[in-house]
Amino acid sequence: MAKNGTAGNSAKESEAPALTFEQAMETLETIVAKLESGDVPLETAIELFQEGMSLSRLCGQKLEQVERRIETLVEGDGGFQRKPFVATKEEA
């Protein structure tokens, strides 16, 4: 049984990067709603939880990638300068 679960997770993880951030969030919201309803058997709940954790990690990775790509424009004495985006604790 563990082998099937592991193989299933590997297949899902290999498909996960193809998801957009929005698709991953939508799927995650659906999973959360199902889990909150309490109307799923324990085994299904565990599988949904694992899928949700995987999607959560994917969303976090995608947000980190975006943060690395964002630049801010800062006005200085010589005009505007580009600086890399640095998230503060309040923004994270």
TrEMBL record:
Gene3D superfamilies: Exonuclease VII, small subunit. Keywords: Cytoplasm, Exonuclease, Hydrolase, Nuclease. It is found in: Cytoplasm. Belongs to the XseB family. HAMAP family: Exonuc_7_S. Bidirectionally degrades single-stranded DNA into large acid-insoluble oligonucleotides, which are then degraded further into small acid-soluble oligonucleotides. This is Exodeoxyribonuclease 7 small subunit. It comes from Cohnella herbarum.
